[in-house]
Amino acid sequence: MAGSKKAAKKKATDKAAKKSGKKVETKKSAAKPGVKSAQKVESKAAKTSKTAKPEKAAKPSKTAKPPKLKATKPTLAPALTAEETAAALAPVPTTTLAATEWVTQPAQALAPTPGLRLAELDPEATPGWEGTREEAEARTLALGEEMSQLQERLFAEGRTGGTRSVLLVLQGLDTSGKGGIVRHVLGMVDPQGVSLRSFGVPTEEERSHHYLWRIRNSLPAAGRIGVFDRSHYEDVLVVKVEQLADEEEIERRYEEINAFEAELIEAGTTIVKVALVISPDEQYERLRERLVRPDKHWKFSLGDLHTRERWPAYAQAYETVFERTSTEAAPWHVVPANRKWFSRLAVSELLVQALRDLDLGWPVADFDVAAALEALDASASLSLD
Ligand code: ADP
User: Which residues, including other chains, have CB under 8 Å from residue 96's CB and lie 6 or more apart?
Assistant: First the structure.
């Protein structure tokens, strides 16, 4: 959303520049990389394109000499002031928080307590959050803007040799809202920077490999926010409940998963693990909606009823997952998800915090900026004929 607004604004600015052939008064001090983008806009404006009408349009006739393009130096973007430079390079402002909203840090409020029993967790609850629904929705939007800015920096870092990435692992039973998180939370950032993978029943090829094979093949590239809609945890959840592997093998997997995640973290990936928890009653309502509405039938599968019947076994399998794989480096977050506005807020908070913790700046140019600027200026009167 923020991205498309920005794009629309830029388009309008570029259009205006083309029309007038004049210097664009872009505010260069904003959260943009400044120098580079300002130059881009400027150079676009400065060049007279085939479609742009110069102010005193002398129509090129066959006899008349085409007018020489004037050097456009006087209209070039001035160097940023020290203040503007500092603003362009400043950290992304942290979304403000009213004291009455989160009374406990989300990561802490959502941490699974030792021996957690899912049956005892209230899926209607909003642990740590004491604001209203309206405040939550407003905050989610504001966090989206912060996330979008942080994600652009992460992306820039990835494009300039950085190796860091963020991986959001989303788990939850059918209708728990995984898709809604993808749409509403990740939908707030530039899709270029997000890589989404969903994991369903393994294909024949996937089954012929180690269970982590398809996961390794789906890891986010440097600079990306990866999202797993279901994940390697299915290999200790559905696989356990449906006894698709023997107990010893499943037992081995918890440690294997911990080691795998430790390896990812070592390689620069921050892992944010979220389990969305709804109540059986809420699932009943959501499944029912899928059945009574013809436009939702595509979301329903008979397998959902089979899974629903195994609720207690899944609850137990999840409890074991939290117990065995909630590590210091990659802790689980158990998010009550009956209220979609809360789960979306909670996941936004966790993701934004993970991005803030990366302390992201803008990559320093690995070329001589002054020399490049000089070379560009020298070509300011470049003619197309
Ligand atoms: P969704 O229901 O999330 O929209 P799909 O219907 O494509 O997505 O696939 C989800 C199903 O795939 C779930 O029932 C899930 O348990 C199953 N699944 C995912 N991973 C595995 C796995 N490793 N082994 C067996 N089944 C799996």
Answer: 142
The CA distance from 363 to 173, in Å, is: 40
Q: How far apart are CA 172 and CA 176, in angstroms?
A: 6
The single-letter DSSP state of residue 52 is: S
Q: Are 176 and 337 in contact (CB under 8 A)?
A: yes
Tokens of 358: 């990366």
Q: Which of 36, 7, 12 shows the shortest CA–CA distance to 24? A: 12
Closest C-alpha among 349, 365, 363, 355 to residue 97? 349
- Say how many Å lie between the CA of residue 138 and the centre of ligand 1: 33
Ligand 1 site residues (CB inside 6 A) read 174, 199-202, 230, 234-235, 238-239, 244, 301, 303, 307
How many residues make up the chain in this entry?
385
CA distances from 175 to 180, 309, 314 (A): 9, 14, 14
119 CB contacts (<8 Å, ≥6 apart)?
Answer: 312, 315
CB 34 within 8 A of CB 85: yes
Summarised one tens digit per residue, pLDDT across range 284-340 is: 999 999 999 999 999 999 999 999 999 999 999 999 999 999 999 999 999 999 999
Nearest to 265 by CA among 358, 349, 348: 358
| pTM of structure | 0.81
